[in-house]
Each structure stands twice: as C-alpha cells, then as structure tokens.
Amino acid sequence: MTSHLRVADANDVLDRLRLQFHAKGTQQLSDLDAYCARMDTAGAGTLTRKELETCLNYFGLFPTTQDVGALVRSFGSTVGSSSSIQWRPFVDALGGELSTLREEAVRHAFAAVPSGSVADVAAAGHFDDHPLAARGVLRGDDLRHAFAVGLSKATHGGDANNNVVTWPAFRTYYASVSLAFAGDDEFVAMLRGVWRPRALHVAPARGIFGNKRSVLLEKLGQRTHKEENERDVLMRALRKHDASESGFVAPHELQRACEVLGVVVTMDEVHDTFAVGTRDARGKLSVAWFADFICADSIA
C-alpha cells in the first residue's frame, strides 16, 4: 500500500471519529490523551491495537477492525507495518488545530476573564449558559468542575487555588474541547454564553455549503458536454473520490472533489453541510443527496 493510500485511509477514520465526538458532545480530547497515557504503562509512547481499541471504546467510540488497522498503518512505530500505534501523534491528528476564527474567539474570551487562579476563573464563568447545560445534558456546576479540572491540567499542575491562569493554558484547554463543537458558530456561542466578552460577537450565520452552491453550479455548467447535465458531472466527480465505492463520502473526500471542480470550501463549511445532509451509519454524506442539493434547480 502506498503512503498516499495509507494517509487517505487514516483520514477517513479520523473524520468518522471526529463526527462521533461531535455527536456525543465529548468534553475533552485531553481526557483521551490522559487515558492513553495511563494505558501506556511502559511509557514507550505506543499502544497495542487492543489497547487502542480499549481507549476508544471507553469514550464511546467503536472503530471497526479495518479502521484500527488503518490507524496503526499510518501512526505505527514502523510506518506501513506495525503491531502498535504511536498514540500521541494519533491524538494530536484527531484534535487538529483551532481555526483562526475559534482562536480569535478564545482570545476575546480570555480577555474577559478575571486575573487569578483556576478557581477564580472557574467561579466567574456562567456555566449555566453553556450549550450542554441549556440542553439538559449536564448541570452548570458539573461543567464548571470539568472546566477547572481541565484548566488545571493545562497549567501543568493540579492545584486549582494556586495556579495562575495564563493565555497558553486557557488556549490549550479550549483546543482540547473544540472537538465537541462541529461548527464555529456553536463554539463561539458557547464562549459568548460562558464568558460574555463585549468584543466577542456571534459569527455571521453561514448557509449550507458556505453559500457556495451557485459557484459550484456554475463550475459544473462549464464542464458539461453532449447530453450531460450539471448533476451528471458532479456525480462523476464525487464517485471518483468515493474511496469505499459506497455512494457516501467522508468530509475530506467531499472537500477534495469540490477543489478538483474549482471550488475551495473550508472544513467548517463541509461539516455544516454534513450536519444537514443524509449520512450513513459511519457518518459519511450521501453523494446523491449532495448532488440533489446542488443541482435541484438546474435540471428539469
């Protein structure tokens, strides 16, 4: 198997795991990091396949044997052939980086918090206005406690009363919970509700597919020939990127297909589309649904 295919397979699995994190509202990627560290009793930085499955299962994630194999091939101690996985690079890849919009929002939130210890900052938060509290998933006090514990970890200490909260620690904490929010708007709304910074405004509402439907439709029209219509062109492009040949695509596959057609979409815009579209049990998007959405007004 080529390195290109190994990366593509691993990206597929990471996309599915991220969608499951979104759906479950998992609070902290750092909890997965800490759990992996506990499982790594030898401190070698690696886990066996079974240990990796145990870690993921603990957080309600149940990848298939093939999925685990793809991860081990990509993040194994011997690239392409290994019986163990380097778990920290895997966890880092799963979390990704804060988008520019999210980092800016976190910076505004930090500017609104009082200077002081972890306990002082936690006491100032309006956690009853956190989305999970508003939906009745968790109590505000439970979210406050989870915040204090997570922020203490980010300060590389365990004393919530003495650790002074710094910008790097605050950013590290919110990078670890960012995965629980599929869209930027939801993430920004959470920060706005908990910290109420004057400088933080809700991001303008985006339409499905980042309001780029008409742009893609125009690009498709430029590629039609003979008896083809725009939907035919789009379906052909999507099938080329449907690695599983199942009629469903992962987020990065949809993004690549659109780029080939000449339309650049961000991963946030892709996830917004996935949130409203028809998906299978693995979280992949139906190519037929997407083609119908894009081309509904272009064909008879």
From TrEMBL:
Coiled-coil portions: none
Listed SUPFAM superfamilies: EF-hand
The protein's name in its UniProt record: EF-hand domain-containing protein
Record's keyword annotation contains Metal-binding: yes
GO MF term (any one): calcium ion binding
Protein's organism: Saprolegnia parasitica (strain CBS 223.65)
Origin: domain of life: Eukaryota
Gene3D superfamilies tied to this protein: EF-hand (1.10.238.10)
PROSITE patterns: EF_HAND_1, EF_HAND_2
PANTHER family membership: CALCYPHOSIN, CALCYPHOSINE LIKE
Domain EF-hand: 27-62, 229-264
InterPro entries, sorted: Ca-bind, EF-hand-dom_pair, EF_Hand_1_Ca_BS, EF_hand_dom
Keywords per UniProt: Calcium, Metal-binding, Repeat
